[in-house]
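User: Could you check the structure of this?
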Amino acid sequence: MQEASGLTMGLSITSPEIRALELNRLEVLEAAVEILTEELRLPSATAGPADLETLSTENDLGALLSILERFAEAKPRLLRALKGRAKALGAFHPDTVGTYYNLGRALFELGEYEASAPRLARALEGWKKALGPLHPRVSLASISYGKALLSTGRAQEALRSFREAHDAASGSVGDTHSLALAATTGAGESLMKLGKPQLAGIFLRDAFKLSAEHLGPGQFQTVSTAICLSNALTAIGRREQALKVLRSTLKAAQTSRDATYGATQAVILAAGALARALQGAGDTFGTLKACGVKALAMMELPFPAGEDTLRSHMKLAELLLEGVSISQGEAILAKVAERFEQDFGPGSTAAAEALELRAASRRKRRGGAKPVRSWAPMRPPR
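Assistant: Sure, the predicted structure tokens are below.
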């Protein structure tokens, strides 16, 4: 749910309740979804599938479902809204452009990168025409487009898009705004894909420093940049420095007073990165266990976890089952299955996968078989 504010840009409703979206208030989001869904069900003498008000409701509902990370439900709503708006208003009407962006983001989150990229490119083109090159929305669309390009293996084009995003953010909201910092991090990731870790490190070091100073050392954006920086440092042979960055970032995230979903997600992201970097090191056990505690706490929060987050928890559980903390790993898998059923409906295949992993672990324990490790962490010396 990190990009909720970006997704709300396509919304056309303006009630005070909807403005509370920026606070990520789940009850408001769910209530708004119910209201808009009911509006689309109500019979009307004038409204039809191509009615502008109906298309607006479809777009708004798709955007809200995306914020709730229910991207599969959002996709058909946004496709209908885009088709109707493009026909009735034209491809570069502001409402159509907003729907292009919402659909592009939903497709990206569903892993449909090839389909996502052209929609985001159209949104970027439309916002440039309407708002000029130096505007936050242009920066936002450039970042999203860059991520889609990066995910389709077009790193050089992605680098250009991230640089354009940085210019748009710097010229409108400043170099230390989260948009400018996200663009710099994206540029660093692109350089890594292009096989230039030394240059990537320069970009990422600056972004990490500014993000820690202006957004906070334990914030999600800062953590994401720290992980990219540690990857660059490792690639140029500075592993100890990379570990230092990850340890300090995890400590900052854990001591943050922020109790939001995003803050908890940041802790798990940092802990998971450190655990992967420490494979075989003495403090891996403690790091993974701390990560497991946060994962369980995170799934108790009244926010939709999202499929990517739940699957990352499954991966964490698998690591814990490798002799680190079997009971904790099984508890996470049980909770993951419950959340998949709760958030994505009964009969979820992912829920079945999680339950099968848990059942396999329990069968091993009953049979006395020791878990097979893909890596061999050492217990810290006493």
